[in-house]
Amino acid sequence: MYSFTFPTSGRTRIEHDLLGDKAVPVEALFGVQTLRGIENFKISTSLLSHYPAFIKGLGYIKMGAALANHEVGLLPTPIKDAIVAACQELIDGKHHEQKETAEYDRIRTEFLNALGIVVIRFTNDDVNHRFKCVCDIIQERVPFLRPTPPS
Asked: I need a labelling partner for 22 at 20 to 30 A (CA). Which of 28, 34, 39, 62 fits?
């Protein structure tokens, strides 16, 4: 098992690829394919955070692909919007060092929770592959979105 450079709670989410199901740390901003690469190839121990220009380029490529797929009707608007927003964060330099962003997210979440604001985070993979589940979680966690029985 690989030892991650960012704090993990030990909780995982199950992701699926052509090789089958695999547990990925819930804190990870990557998916099953990246995890397999980290575990199986020594080259994967190089941190992409050391190459911010490469990450920025990938953000532009993925954003362009999302916009093009949306334009031809292959990608629904909510998913396109989520991908574009995530790509813009990469382009702007966020998430280059997950350890730092995890601590920032923890502090920000505690602050918002103290104000009574609930923070719900989803990865692109969640939105792309488990959209109904994402919607169900949002509906469950946000009281005014719950259906109210007729009176």
From this structure: 62
Taking alpha carbons only, the member of 104, 105, 66 closest to residue 86 is 66
Secondary structure of 25-61 in the HEC alphabet? ECCCCCCHHHHHHHHHCHHHHCCHHHCHHHHHHHHHH
C-alpha–C-alpha distance, residues 23 and 16, integer Å: 9
Q: What are phi and psi of 12, to 5 degrees?
A: -135, 165
Go through 88-105 and write b for each residue having 16 or more CB atoms within 10 A of its CB, e for each that does not: eebbeebbbbbeebbeee
Q: Which tens digits make up the pLDDT trace of 43-79?
A: 645 566 667 788 888 889 999 999 999 999 998 898 8
Domain edges within the chain = 1-46, 48-145
SS3 content of the chain, % helix, strand, coil (to 5): 60, 10, 35
Residues in contact with 72: Cβ distance below 8 Å, sequence separation at least 6, in sequence order: none
For helices 52-71 and 77-91, angle between their N-to-C axes, nearest 10 degrees:
160
Contact in structure between 95 and 62 (CB atoms under 8 Å): no
